[in-house]
Design goal:
alpha/beta; 6-stranded parallel β-sheet; 10 helices; 39% helix; globular
């Protein structure tokens, strides 16, 4: 069996063309240019690369972009003051705070401070809650990218056995929530595995769709998957550098070995990564529409008693 390579770069390019057309209409008819602010504290190498890629995509799409690079010793108070200013800025529709933050800053407090309607990474508890009940304004970008990749690749989700390896708040939990919803493009049976799963292989061998987000290089090996599985590899693990100093990246899946059994598989890099970035852009455009009254935020249909 020769696996089909699910090319996230190409699919993201097509979505980018759609976004570019949508933005041109927004500007021509309403004078609106969506704006994204990226905030990074410290100089972590991987984070700098991620933020740089997001800023570059903003420029490519002619989206307004602000980048705020803060020193490692920035106080929590200073960061919260910046977020408050960005919440009030009419030019900024989306705010992204790059994680992780330094230990002296509370990630929970910072993420809670972002206006939920500007939380284009879908990490504020309000947006997490809306996602859980199927009423999301913005889906978290990596899970949204995975979902879009599956849909646009024609992968059957409804009724499929999906196994997610990893239970992070940024990937594992939200992708499980998205795929289990009672709506088109979902309706999967989802199993979530993690570091305390007793027999990981028993679960992964059942998967029609396997989503690997464990953060461990080549954690998923060929003997752990069945013939014809669809594999989505979320991992980006640096295992060294070339003599020229270029990073050597591998995923959470033993790509070459698993590819021989899979029906379809994402590469690393070039699979999920480009989809994450383009979904951030898509969320930012929606945020601009909501701010202008051209789109309505999702209405929560459930009354909560305190």
């Amino acid at each position: 069996m020769t696996a089909r390579i699910l090319d996230g770069t190409e699919i993201a390019r097509k979505i980018g063309d759609e976004i570019r057309a949508e933005m041109a209409e927004l500007k021509a008819e309403h004078g609106i240019v969506p704006g994204l602010a990226s905030v990074i504290v410290g100089c972590d190498g991987a984070s700098l690369v991620y933020v740089g890629n997001k800023v570059a995509m903003c420029q490519k799409l002619s989206m307004h972009s602000e980048r705020h690079d803060l020193p490692l010793d920035t106080s929590e108070e200073t960061l919260l003051e910046l977020i408050a200013r960005l919440n009030e800025s009419p030019w900024i529709h989306g705010i992204l705070v790059q994680l992780p933050l330094p230990p002296h800053i509370s990630e929970t407090k910072v993420l809670m401070a972002i206006n939920p309607l500007k939380d284009v990474d879908g990490v504020h508890p309000v947006n997490v809650g809306k996602m859980s009940i199927g009423e999301a304004d913005y889906l978290p970008c990596t899970p949204a990218g995975i979902h879009e990749l599956l849909l646009r690749s024609g992968i059957k989700i409804e009724g499929s056995e999906v196994v997610v390896v990893g239970r992070s708040n940024t990937v594992g939990k939200p992708i499980a929530s998205i795929l289990v919803q009672k709506k088109p493009g979902a309706n999967a049976t989802v199993t979530m595995c993690h570091s305390h799963t007793r027999d990981l292989k028993m679960h992964t061998l059942k998967a029609d769709i396997l989503i690997a987000a464990a953060g461990k290089p080549k954690r998923i090996t060929a003997d752990m998957v069945k013939e014809g599985v669809v594999v989505i590899d979320v991992g980006t693990n640096e295992i060294g550098k070339t003599p020229e100093g270029k990073r050597i990246l591998v995923g959470d899946v033993d790509f070459e070995a698993v590819k021989a059994k899979a029906a379809a598989i994402t590469p690393v890099p070039g699979g999920v990564g480009p989809m994450t970035i383009i979904m951030l852009m898509k969320n930012t455009v929606r945020a601009a529409k909501i701010a202008a009254g051209l789109a309505r935020p999702a209405e929560v249909k459930y009354a909560l008693s305190v």
